[in-house]
């Protein structure tokens, strides 16, 4: 049996016997010749078969010739009846031919083995709406463009892991079932646990990232799911998403965290550009820009002033930027600094988590949001590691210290100054590839009204 060859390996092979497997993308059934475009996970190749049609005439053939003709007739009929999406294996002869537009190679079909035939009517089309495509996501993902999204995701995550591992970070896998909220009592999914207990799906690995600092790990990261019971229907919210988190010890301020994150993103974007830049340009019309460091930094109060001077009045009363405010300050940064990223810093404690450290001089938190192309992708901060202050800040937020006692225990036996960030993977991919919704870049999206497929 000939070993299966991937389509992207064909150009480097010499002419001769070859076996390829994939699904049917198109069939051109002409009178004298048949063409099949077969796609696998790496690309597409043209298959060709000289058509043998039944003329109805009785021919004077030997038994061997008749058997050969019957076999050719059967192959022609099989190809004529192929449906879009049918998975099959072809054994044939590879031939290099510069006239073939699709990769400069084609395969003359010898035998064709159908693994699983597809129904003739495809439930989605190129112009189907997003919700319809999400209903048939497994078909939607067969597109070359969508395949590339997840290759980019793989490269992005691998590059981040490489950056961290080369710098001696430890990867952790924190639990997603928790006895109490990891950030606030809002946006929690609860479920029955053993006995009369209630468990909650983790909103973030925040508590356990900090536990690793107290455990003496020094520098950690995690790429894992997180859950928010948020009934939002925006293009950038999901009830289940992949969170990219890191935490480091012995920092002097949130600026140490920001420096690490901008280096991380520069490293990861360079890896994506090197491996996929040309294909991203071809399929998405986007040139991957590797960000220069340092990223611009703008305090929140100054950002609000700049946005107001641009003619936009932020309607929010909590002092934060709203989505249009984020777009406006990012447009200003693009115009002024030619940069797609900006750190917004110095947030008021009222709009930050209880565990964010506060500057004793200004009373503002040592924290930041990172905006990319006008959308928030990250919240980062120095954490409060002094347990007495931490408890008081929790009380200010209306949290019951008894429910967080296991968390406060982390800090009762010594803790280093530390900080970190949480970043949404789907938002980064959406913005990197110029997509309009995180649903386009999420393998299987989960939102308030979507639990399937």
Identify the CATH architecture of the largest domain: 2-Layer Sandwich
CATH class term of the largest domain: Alpha Beta
Proportion of strand residues: 15-25%
Envelope shape:
elongated
Q: Which class best fits the helix and strand makeup? A: alpha+beta
Arrangement of strands in the largest sheet? 6-10-11-16-15-14-13-12
The count of DSSP E runs of length 2 or more, i.e. the number of strands, is 16
**Residues in helix, %:** 25-40%
State the helix count.
11
Name of the CATH homologous superfamily of the largest domain: Bira Bifunctional Protein, Domain 2
| Low-pLDDT stretches | none
CATH topology of the largest domain: BirA Bifunctional Protein, domain 2
The biggest sheet, with number of strands, parallel, antiparallel or mixed sense and barrel status, is: 8 strands, mixed
* Rg calc: 28 Å
Beginning-to-end CA distance, first to last residue: 36 Å
Structural domain count: 2
- Helix/strand order, N-terminal first: EEEHEEHHHEEEEHEEHEHHEEEHHEH
Average predicted local confidence, pLDDT: 95
List its traits.
453 residues; alpha+beta; OB fold (Dihydrolipoamide Acetyltransferase, E2P); BirA Bifunctional Protein, domain 2; 2 domains; 8-stranded mixed sheet; 5-stranded mixed beta barrel; 11 helices; 31% helix; 25% strand; elongated
């Amino acid at each position: 049996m000939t070993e299966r060859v991937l389509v992207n390996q064909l150009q480097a092979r010499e002419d001769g016997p070859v076996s390829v497997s994939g699904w049917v993308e198109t069939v051109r059934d002409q009178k004298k010749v048949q063409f099949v475009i077969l796609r696998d996970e790496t690309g597409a190749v043209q298959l060709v078969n000289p058509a043998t049609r039944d003329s109805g005439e009785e021919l004077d053939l030997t038994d061997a010739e008749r058997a050969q003709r019957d076999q050719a007739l059967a192959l022609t009929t099989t190809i004529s009846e192929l449906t879009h999406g049918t998975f099959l294996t072809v054994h044939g002869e590879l031939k290099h031919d510069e006239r073939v537009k699709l990769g400069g190679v084609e395969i003359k079909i010898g035998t064709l083995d159908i693994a699983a035939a597809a129904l003739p009517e495809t439930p989605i089309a190129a112009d189907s709406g997003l919700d319809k495509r999400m209903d048939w996501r497994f078909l939607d993902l067969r597109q070359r463009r969508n395949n590339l999204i997840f290759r980019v995701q793989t490269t992005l995550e691998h590059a981040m892991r490489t950056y961290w591992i080369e710098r001696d970070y430890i990867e952790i896998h924190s639990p997603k079932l928790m006895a109490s909220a990891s950030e606030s009592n809002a946006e929690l999914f609860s479920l029955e646990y053993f006995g009369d207990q209630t468990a909650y799906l983790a909103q973030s690995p925040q508590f356990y990232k900090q536990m690793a600092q107290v455990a003496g790990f020094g520098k950690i990261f995690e790429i894992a799911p997180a859950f928010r019971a948020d009934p939002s229907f925006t293009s950038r919210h999901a009830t289940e998403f992949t969170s990219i988190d890191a935490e480091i010890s012995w920092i002097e301020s949130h600026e140490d965290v920001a420096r690490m994150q901008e280096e991380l993103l520069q490293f990861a974007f360079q890896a994506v550009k090197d491996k996929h830049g040309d294909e991203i340009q071809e399929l998405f019309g986007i040139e991957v820009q590797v960000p220069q460091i340092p990223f611009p930094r703008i305090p929140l109060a100054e950002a609000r002033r700049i946005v107001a001077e641009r003619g936009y009045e932020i309607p929010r009363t909590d002092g934060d930027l709203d989505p249009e405010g984020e777009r406006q300050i990012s447009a200003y940064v693009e115009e002024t600094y030619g940069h797609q990223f900006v750190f917004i810093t110095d947030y008021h404690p009222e709009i930050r988590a209880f565990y964010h450290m506060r500057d004793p001089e200004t009373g503002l938190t040592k924290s930041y949001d990172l905006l990319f192309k006008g959308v928030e992708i990250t919240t980062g901060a120095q954490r409060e590691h002094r347990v007495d202050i931490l408890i008081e800040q929790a009380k200010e937020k209306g949290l019951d210290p008894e429910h967080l006692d296991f968390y406060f225990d982390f800090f009762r036996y010594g803790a280093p100054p530390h900080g970190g960030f949480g970043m949404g993977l789907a938002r980064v991919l959406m913005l990197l590839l110029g997509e309009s919704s995180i649903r386009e870049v999420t393998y299987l999206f989960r939102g308030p009204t979507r639990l399937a497929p």
